[in-house]
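Working notes for the structural subgroup meeting. M.R. asked for a predicted model of this chain before we commit to crystallization trials. I am recording the input and output together here so anyone reviewing the notebook later can reproduce the run.

Input as submitted:
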Amino acid sequence: MKKNILMILVAMTLMTACEKNNEKTVTMESIHKEEGIPVKVKIIEKEEFVKSLNFSARLSGNRQSAASAMIGGRIEKINVEVGDLVEKDSILMEFPKDAPAAQFKQAKSAFELAKKTYERMKNLYEIGGISKQELDQTKTQYDVSAANWDAAQQMLKVRAPISGYVSNISVRETDGVHAETVLAIISQTEKMKARVWVTEDEICEIQKGMTAKALWKDAILQGKVVEVAMSMDRTHNAFPVDLIFSNPKNLCKSGVIADIQISTYENPEAFVLARKTVLEDDKGKFVYKVNSLQAKKTYVQTGEQNGNIEIINGLQIGDKVIVEGLNLISEKEKVKIIK
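Returned structure, recorded in token form:
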């Protein structure tokens, strides 16, 4: 008897719960029917749409040259620091005059002797003591000695190959170096250059003259594509693309790794929607607009994509396109716009 009573109570409890659930469902449906399904909308207006390809690349001065040692030996003096602006042929570093490789003392002695000899022979020629041929031979020896003396002096001084900023110094005073060792880098950084490597698919989208950006920390450099390869580089299995960027006030440093964006498509007055907003059926792609507080199915023609979608036909300025609540609505469903 007690068991039967317990079963009756459980059954009554289940029936009450089902009735409450049905009451809730009916209440929510009635609210939606009366007030409309809550949705969020985007009011269509013109905005910029840019499609880009993204890479990483090292930036360097548009013109960059290395200053190298002409001889081996000890660095006696460094006249510049990283960041200094130097003129072409200004002296960056110096070797000591006793550097064996320069043969400085020998060249100086030979020059001084040749100079005295030439001056003496010139005086003899003027009084008829020697022939013109003998004077010319002495002059030739003097010229050769002068050139050797000048070369010896030049070897002791490391000069800037171009005008620009000292972007790197690889030695310190008293360091010993070998001939042809790169001692410093001079860069012209009012413009920066970069090379990116692109795939077969990407190369078809890139053309010379396209706009680009280089982003490094807080700096944004504006630039463009200046060279697009016509054939693949077999070493990289990719196509090289060269870019130039303006670098006002030297915001960006030579040698840094920057994010490169090449704009392959730009529309400054586009209609743009998020991808999830654009749906598709057998007839094509569509969106839901709000028209007289009803959802209206509107077919659209799409263009490029960059995470969002460019709408090139089917919408007008001021249209209210539903962007949230899409899973609850259908054609001519009553809706309520919420903020």
